[in-house]
Automatic annotation (TrEMBL):
<feature type="modified residue" description="Pyruvic acid (Cys)">
    <location>
        <position position="242"/>
    </location>
</feature>
<dbReference type="InterPro" id="IPR015417">
    <property type="entry name" value="Gly_reductase_pB_sua/b"/>
</dbReference>
<keyword id="KW-0560">Oxidoreductase</keyword>
<dbReference type="InterPro" id="IPR016585">
    <property type="entry name" value="Gly/sarc/bet_Rdtase_B_asu/bsu"/>
</dbReference>
<feature type="active site" description="Schiff-base intermediate with substrate; via pyruvic acid">
    <location>
        <position position="242"/>
    </location>
</feature>
<keyword id="KW-0704">Schiff base</keyword>
<keyword id="KW-0670">Pyruvate</keyword>
<dbReference type="GO" id="GO:0050485">
    <property type="term" value="F:oxidoreductase activity, acting on X-H and Y-H to form an X-Y bond, with a disulfide as acceptor"/>
</dbReference>
<protein>
    <submittedName>
        <fullName>Beta-aspartyl-peptidase</fullName>
    </submittedName>
</protein>
<dbReference type="Pfam" id="PF09338">
    <property type="entry name" value="Gly_reductase"/>
</dbReference>
Length: 428
């Protein structure tokens, strides 16, 4: 598949009478946009706000972050099986609003949503302090159940991203990037002298608000399978997670997966990037065995020389990570794992809940237990009181002076395991 990504760079967002993009500025008619995207009885109210890089603004609790995109040419539409028909995507041309994001917040869904600081120490740990953010504040109706609440906020964010993405449909792109993965035998024959490399993409699927969706299907229900990398860029994988903020891949990160970007950057130069194997992270041992068996089988079947394996989440999924690594290595395929660590505030604890001698090549996203004090900021979008109960916080996290004592696991994207922004493909 060959996909062109046409980038329209957004420098600022402003509220206005007409929704449009002009000279790199996104103008939004707030009332009109809310009316277009909100039709859910589980949501009592919706509002919009803007958070710009460098502003003294804190957004919390953050549910999801989404980048607006629109299919201009090619099969299907953005978020297939969710908002668009269940067509196979990943080819043609897609336009993207770069430099901005839709951020969803409101009353907390679970207990693991996160924080985005637009300035100060917290801003150094999240990539979303560098995007101009249109923040969607969705408050649930009285008595709504958690799963209905999560789904409603999730879909509201997707609808907002689709609504804004449509503005780019007929615009001329500021920059175009092209990505291509050919059918397997053709791809192998193109660079026979280069090592054949794949990517094993572990998706959070433990349930209880820890879910990821593939073409609209809860990934708990899948067995490991193959995707063209470009399918992921068109929204084939979306987040439904309320897992710890530093551990989850928001939908934005699925759309802009750092491992995929880096592997494409080295494709045809140092490696032959053959594609993506998606797999899940299960609760029961038999399911873990099944998925890791299939994952290693696919690696061997494709004749891969090496793979990168990334994990989403921590603790229980560490077992899935090590099972995948051990079995893939046993199949004769070199393996590099990408993970964060939970090594305690002093860094002296065991970093992962599982280990094996074959896991001897690791890219770390850092220690999620690292302790930080975030300064008081002038404005909070959302509900600051939840900082005391989210994972990585405690009953004393919110200080009287407005500063926060937290672990960096509370910060959205702090130790992201897809290598978003920092992974080098030169790890083999």
């Amino acid at each position: 598949m060959r996909l062109e990504i046409g980038k329209i760079f957004i420098k600022d967002i402003q509220f206005a009478d007409v929704t449009k993009i002009e000279n790199g500025v996104l103008f939004v008619n707030k009332e009109e946009m809310i009316k277009e995207i909100w039709d859910d009885e589980h949501i009592a109210s919706v509002d919009l706000d803007i958070a710009r890089p460098g502003e003294s603004v804190r957004i919390t609790p953050v549910k999801d972050v989404i980048e607006p995109r629109v299919k201009v040419e090619g099969n299907g539409g953005i978020f297939p099986g969710v908002l668009s028909k269940v067509d196979t995507v990943g080819e043609g041309r897609t336009h993207v609003l770069k430099g901005m994001a839709v951020v969803t917040t409101g009353k907390i869904v679970g207990f693991q949503e996160g924080i985005i600081d637009m300035t100060g120490l917290g801003a150094e740990y999240t990539p979303f302090s560098k995007t101009v953010n249109l923040v969607l504040i969705a408050e649930p109706s009285e008595g709504v159940k958690q799963h209905d609440h999560e789904k409603s906020v999730r879909f509201l964010g997707f609808k907002a991203a689709r609504y804004l993405g449509e503005l780019a449909r007929n615009l001329e792109a500021d920059e175009v990037s092209t990505y291509e993965t050919k059918p397997l035998l053709e791809q192998i024959a193109e660079y026979p002298e280069l090592p054949k490399v794949g990517y094993v993409y572990m998706l959070q699927t433990q349930g209880l608000l820890h879910d990821t969706y593939v073409y609209g299907v809860d990934a708990k229900q899948i067995v490991p399978t193959l995707l063209y990398p470009t399918e992921i860029m068109d929204g084939a994988i979306v987040s439904g997670n309320c897992v710890s903020a530093c551990d989850k891949n928001p939908t934005y990160v699925h759309l802009n997966n750092g491992v995929i970007e880096e592997l494409y950057a080295q494709h045809g130069k140092e490696i032959n990037f053959l594609g993506v194997i998606i797999t899940n992270e299960n609760v029961y041992l038999a399911d873990k065995e099944r998925s890791s068996n299939w994952t290693s089988k696919l690696c061997k079947y494709l004749g891969l020389d090496a793979v990168i394996v990334s994990q989403e989440g921590f603790g229980n999924p560490d077992t899935d990570l090590i099972m995948n690594c051990k079995k893939i290595e046993t199949a004769g395929v070199k393996t590099v794992i990408v993970t964060d660590e939970y090594a305690g505030r002093d860094g002296a604890s065991q970093s992962l809940a599982d280990a094996d001698a074959k896991a001897d090549a690791v890219v770390t996203g850092g220690n999620a237990n690292q302790y930080v004090v975030l300064p008081k900021l002038d404005k909070v979008i959302g509900h600051i009181e939840y900082v005391n109960i989210i994972a990585g916080g405690n009953e004393h996290s919110l200080r009287e002076d407005g500063s926060l004592e937290v672990e960096i696991q509370t910060i959205t994207g702090a130790t992201n395991e897809t290598g978003f922004g920092y992974l080098s493909a030169k790890t083999f």
